[in-house]
Design a protein that fits this description.
homotetramer; alpha+beta; three-stranded antiparallel β-sheet; 14 strands
Chain lengths: 428, 428, 428, 428
């Protein structure tokens, strides 16, 4: 994995250890509302128990940093190397993913002890001369990796709690204020136009980026326009009430087959209850707020909605080109709302970052000249470049320090348990 | 459900409450070695999380006793009526069984609080004038029901722990002594002969029995012989090493299809490890003891083994007729071995009770004149009388007070996670 | 396989060859209405293409008779030994059953040429000194085997044609007359009572029988009564209209799961069409005749219907004991109706033979002392003695010369594409 | 569907009818070696019986041309409108695709009669004043549609015959000469370089094209190189023998899961037989020819092979840009080889057209400004633009008159029963 890291002097070392402590502490904070039982649930093969996320992010530092830094390193527990390897074939075999929910040992308490021990060893490493720039780069990957799993902790536990007919909340005091936020009433949709031309896309600069954001390269874009804000629950509800889920002509063929097989009739977390639409959030079941961005929809749904609205999804390069010059501001996990919020209603491009990941029409593939590294970390991104679609911009469950304009998230077209929504586009 | 209960005077009332406390306390004892995480695991659709067993057995008393006894009864939590109903359609809908492992709320602690509250209300009932003989009969059913779930707690947690590649023990200090027990060395197999004739089978008497044990009726048996003891690990290992799992001529057609689809090559809990056979027990992974009864085999395997040995399985009526006059003695859950033990090696019929449930060749069906009651408890047994085979005699995980010569357990022919073994029979 | 054959003198030889020609000719007759395309269809894994039945019944004689009789026998085509072996592991591997419909070669014409060649070789055998009594016994098995497949040809092609939305008939001029047959109008249900006692069941005598009908042995029967006739479409329609398929309390647990998973709401071939019930028969889609026996129902449905009617299914031994002394008369395949017919409405036991196979509550198992032969023909019956239920009496698609009071047919509880119906029983 | 058709004067009309006769006649020619039984086989849900292809291509003209041209048109058989609709929701419901193999009626003869009748009515239309330019455009679509199905007839029947353990040939006298063709012996791989720049891609001009080839638009390509010829069996065999199918690091994650689940160890039609590799072709099982292009591989395999070889797949725009200026020459269906042939061994870009469809790394999606038409023909291409990959160039089963440089074929990444192969690319 190509990591674009800066100089690794003493300052860098301090920065690394400081950031390590902050990111790791935030994971601990996410655990606070959860019981050992909560941390056991694997509600579908695509999701993992929280307990597993906690162990796996620790395994990452042990495997890729400590074991590489310390001669004849003694692992905390040799069984963990197998139990908590996600998908790195070059590291070794993996415990089958769909069975993660059957593992009660090590317990959550034992996993947290593992975490503390690895943290202590990492602190020793930070204090030593062994933290080479190369290792610091891997630490940085590990922290970005942990931030990805922090988001998954939130989305996986939401999915887990949604299996419970009592609709329990992850955190009961969520976002009361946000529901009464002042917003521009009219909320008409602006279209922002962009010229045709050769654009440069992909990462360039000194900070961290993932290998899939490189190499920076040129693309030609025909003239296009982007919606100034995200599509809202109100707009999506119109689609639903217009028979959106019963009209095959609005859907891709594979999407329509999915709608019928899975019995989809609304977004994953929408619940029709006594004549009223509600939405299951991390704060429990709440009234569906019309002004909030629609979220937890699949690529299939985003695409059908856009077609119904006479528009389309943007390509990932239209999206990236459009946000050049924008600063990284928005509703991220740090705002503690843990749910997308109404758009302010200003002119211009709003909500490009945060709130919801925005589906693009771009199939996830390699950039020209991309080559995964030959070591195990080369398995991080490259091998998933097939039958997945790119999402951009981060969500209300993403850390602000984690996101960039060039950042590429990706999920299969049927996945809908993430904070994923839609910004429409048009060819001019 | 027809319950054969005696007079329900004050003495009976005292007996009921005393037995209630004892049975309920034993469930608590079984929980001692388990963590909240352990109690969450559902390792296959046929098994349930321990936490669910704890709640369901409490639900049983609340639903069938308290709600019937107390006018305008307020349930502990209305959601529990749905969550912890197993299969009683006449009580209401049921949360889907294969999803039980996705429920983290109520937590184990909350379920235990539910248990304590229901126990307190039951004590109030015992102290009141409301405990009619009819209710006392249902209490007795509830206690026998709870004893069945106690056995399932042990077999389900064994299956759950077996999914863990570290082979954790339920209880680490199990049965060390039993492995060095004095036994008759030779261990030859005696065959005990029985005459042809009309036999009476089915329950008669004053104590408790399940409805499926009645009516008592007559059957004609041709002359037969039963093995004097259970088949041993040593004998079963001979079958395995003789290519037993690779020879279709030894298996029923459906059994052979299962062997191939599931890749069976030995009993469920046998592990070939470094050239040596081990067995996963509730005490962890131990050396396979040749003299112990083979256990955790399916009907399919019991049948194939018997065929290989030139014998067959007994019918349930051969079994029941043979044990008339025998007292209920054996290795039950009270002995705390939690695993089948070597036969003493005496002459005559040994091990008819305890150690392992004995597969019979009898498909589970109704006795002549059987009719399930019209209420919800009529669903207890009758509706399962199809495509299941009868097992007799109880096991090392069965309570001694729970078993009888007329007791009929039943499982599908492919089930093999119970303490189930084989006693051979022959037609003379 | 134990075959109870009489003396095999010259007369016997003549009888064998005569019967061979007759049975084989009847198979040819069944082919007349069918195109090569019809003979290709495999509409579900449990059914086979007609073309395959034609080849397999020929393979049977080649494999078990000719190859045994003639030294260094040259098979017609070595590939056929594999392609047309159904399930005889001791003969060799088998082409996978669910894939039979993917084989277009050999064509129907080639299969019929194969048939003619084997017939010619069989005639040579009949004319030779090589036809030992042992071989003649196997010929007899082969002819009974072919008669079973003749019935399957009719039931499998009915199922195949039922997949076609145009409802094509197998034979268009079927049973017009039978629909107007004179019948006793009232059609009340008589119950015929039988005493308790020890009965002898199982085959005895000189003719042919299958191994699963032996040994003859004794059973004790409690007093019981049988319905004097088969249950009718009118009675079954009452069950349907009384919500039979929506009331779980009427069904076995596994049956109810099947009803829901498969969406059953009426018998397999009943079609609700413009407010009227129709039935798909070998003669096409016809009005549902109230007086005809209900047919093409599963064990699950027969059992639920009987429970709804306050009765139960008979055991196979009640059925067999009841028909002792009856002659083999009824609506068989020779009547060319190819569908069950209204009962005449006489007093006493009607319709015990022919019309529909009658589900019994007996799980298919071995008789005391049964032992399958060690050769390949030992696989004929014994290995299916698990999770199947016994049917008795033959159907409108059975040859009259094929059926006996002791004859045991068997199918899984969910199977419903045969001519299978229900006669109710009661314990007195 | 936007059709780019030229003027539709009398000449055009004559051209249309002439081409109609030629294309339809070629379909008939493809049927010659096939029996009614062959035409029944559906060997997997993705394939269709030949009989169905014959009917569906006829249905197309009846539905989209005749029914539109003739007031109060009487369909040949109303049932056919349902039976032979493939996936056009706007026309009506469709008979379920995976069940096509269960339909024996109409027979092949009836389907051919249907074909003749529709042809006769089309001739009447050609002779009439009703053939508007719009209808002529749809006829042209129908002919291109039929050419696509001609290729599917060949690939589906090859798959069907491959299910037969006797490996029957579609045509026994295939390509004997081609196996001895003169070729340049060395066969080294040339790399042809292309400059960076803005390229125009997509269809422009007067002839026919599908809607998915438009609008013509601009793309920017970084500098790249294409292999001068297709990858050969010899090269692919090196990959196989180098453990290609056992090394996860060479495969996309989803590809590796497929390899393991499906047990892939070589291309679909390669057979290891007595120590020698053979290939199942339409001419039967033949020796694997090293110099022929590897074919019948999936995207997954093409991608893994290219990675193993230190290369990658081309994008569809690299491929299209590279072949600008090339004439449409190659081994098409007209050469009657029905199998890919060895490359001549000339310098420069060889085999861009014909032999095998070339997998590109491009996910199948819409071009900027693409919009499917609102009528049923709008379902032809657009709704499949998800989770499929583009293939270019046509194959040995494609008609020469059917292919163009801008032509986009598409299949899922796991599909491998087409004549699909690989040309490698590199970023310079």
């Amino acid at each position: 994995m190509a990591v674009h890291a800066g100089a690794a002097a003493e300052d860098a070392k301090g920065a690394t250890s400081g950031r390590y402590r902050a990111v790791r502490a935030f994971t601990e904070k996410l655990l606070e509302p959860l019981s050992p039982e909560d941390c056991m649930v694997q509600s579908m093969p695509d999701a993992s128990p929280v307990r597993w996320h906690i162990a796996h992010t620790t395994w990452f530092f042990e495997t890729f940093v400590l074991a590489g830094a310390i001669p004849s390193y003694e692992p905390f527990d040799p069984a963990y190397l197998y139990l908590f390897n996600s998908y790195y074939n070059r590291v070794g075999d993996q415990f089958p993913r769909p069975q993660r929910g059957t593992q009660s040992r090590p317990s959550l308490a034992e996993v947290r002890a593992y975490r503390r021990e690895v943290d202590a060893r990492m602190e020793q490493l930070f204090a030593s001369a062994r933290l080479t720039p190369e290792l610091a780069s891997i630490v940085e990957i590990g922290l970005n990796h942990e931030q990805q799993h922090q988001e998954l902790v939130l989305t996986d536990i939401r999915h887990a709690l949604a299996q419970n007919p009592t609709w329990p909340a992850y955190q009961t005091d969520l976002d009361a204020s946000s529901r009464h936020q002042e917003v521009n009433e009219s909320n008409e949709l602006d279209w922002i136009a962009f010229d045709e031309g050769v654009y440069e896309v992909g990462f360039v600069g000194d900070g961290f980026s993932f290998d899939n954001e490189s190499p920076r390269h040129r693309v030609f874009l025909e003239p296009f326009a982007l919606a100034g804000r995200l599509a809202t629950n109100a707009e999506y509800l119109n689609f639903v009430e217009d028979g959106g889920y019963r009209r095959p002509e609005l859907w891709l063929s594979e999407a329509w087959a999915t709608v019928q097989e899975q019995g989809w009739s609304a977004p994953l977390y929408w619940v029709r209850n006594g004549g009223q639409w509600r939405e299951f959030t991390l704060g429990g079941l709440v009234r569906l707020e019309p002004r909030r961005p629609v979220s937890s929809i699949s690529y299939f749904e985003a695409d059908a909605f856009a077609r119904w609205a006479g528009a389309r999804l943007p390509t990932e390069f239209e999206w990236e080109s459009a946000c050049q010059g924008l600063s990284i501001e928005g509703n991220f996990v740090e705002s503690d709302a843990l749910h997308p919020q109404p758009n302010p209603g200003a002119k211009g491009l709003e909500q490009m970052f945060g709130d919801v990941w925005e589906w693009t029409s771009s199939s996830y593939g390699p950039y020209p000249g991309f080559r995964a590294s030959d070591d195990a970390l080369g398995e991080y991104n490259g091998k998933f470049m097939c039958n997945q679609y790119v999402l951009r911009g981060g969500s209300c469950a993403t850390s602000e320090s984690h996101i960039r304009a060039t950042y590429r998230n990706f999920f299969p077209a049927s996945a809908r348990w993430q904070f994923s929504g839609v910004r429409m586009a048009r060819t001019i």
